[in-house]
Amino acid sequence: MPRQQLSPAQARRVALAAQGFGRPVGGQARPGTRQLNGLVDRLGLLQIDSVNVFERSHYLPAFARLGAYDRATLDRLTFAPRGRYVEYWAHEAAIVPVSTWPLLRWRMRDYDVKWRGDASSWLSTSPRMERWLLDEIRDKGPLPASLVEADAALFPQPDRTGPWWGWGDVKRGLESLFRTGALVSAGRRRFERVYALPEQVLPAEILAVDVDRHEAHRRLVAHAARASGVATAADLADYFRLKVADVVPALRELHDEGVVEPVVVPGWGATAWLHRDARVPRRLEADAVLSPFDPVVWYRPRAERLFGFRYRIEIYTPREKRVHGYYVLPVLQDDQLVGRVDLKSDRQAGVLRVQSAWRERDLPIDVERLATTLRRAAAWQGLGAVEVADRGDLAGALRAPLAGHAESDADADVAVRRLD
Q: The whole model's pTM is what?
């Protein structure tokens, strides 16, 4: 039976502290390699997403927690071949420490068994192309799909008469082999994934590690528990996209080892698990806008349980049916999600566009602090202005402190203009 109780407010602060919030942001020294490595190790992964209307998702968690850093430094760390990190389907497509790769090999084997047993899958229908792709990368070294596709066009299609291999065939094949672990990522070039054989990228000692499925789940759940601070079994399952049925026995072992303990959080409706390293801050200071794919909010039921924040991304919703906007980022102030802003980096005009701004229920929001956060975001993006569109119940209130800042400071690098 649970031996301890956390209030909902304590649970929020525990979760945010475990995620690296509550430390000063925006000091004199720009965050560097040590801070970025520490953050990725803490989180366990950075989810990748191709949408860059404001900024690509994997850059945003570090900005939210550390403040303005050099994105090129993160690129060198995360996308370098034979580096400290590699990409795989950990949550969704994500950057993970190389040491995590062996913990996901059971997933690769599952994909391989499933697809080779499916007569309609690419692995079952394209054995010659599979051999050709592996030989191509073995002979030429790591390649992006675009270069593999160019080479494939030179050869007749061996599996059927008619068209030669095209982009769809090549990309489907590379992605299938990537999921099964026959290929790995060797970084990205202009955000295009580069494919390699495992031995071309990963250290021999990593390739030699063989972790059985049960032990891999135990370690992944342990990491998810540390990164979450306090979480339900469903929360922990979602972190690395595990099945709850596999998480429950792992939690029992971790409990026996003293790694986690059950706690009650009123209103959660399920047992929560508190990691032994979790801090329970009396208060927590934070100011950030969060990526839709930040671990704090990526599992929508957890975001709703922790913050009362119902969040649905509307990128694929027709414009006329969107409620809050296209690329809406939750606004974090201290231990609450107090609003939402739809951001767009207009790099040609040099403007950070706040296309809509919304309050969250009846929660108090400090618009001065949000204005400062948005100015920091604009500067980090290399933009010189913040423009607030006239949409959302927070837009008018947010426009005032931004305009006041620009008018009162002759040296301000942010100008604010009301959009018609």
A: 0.91
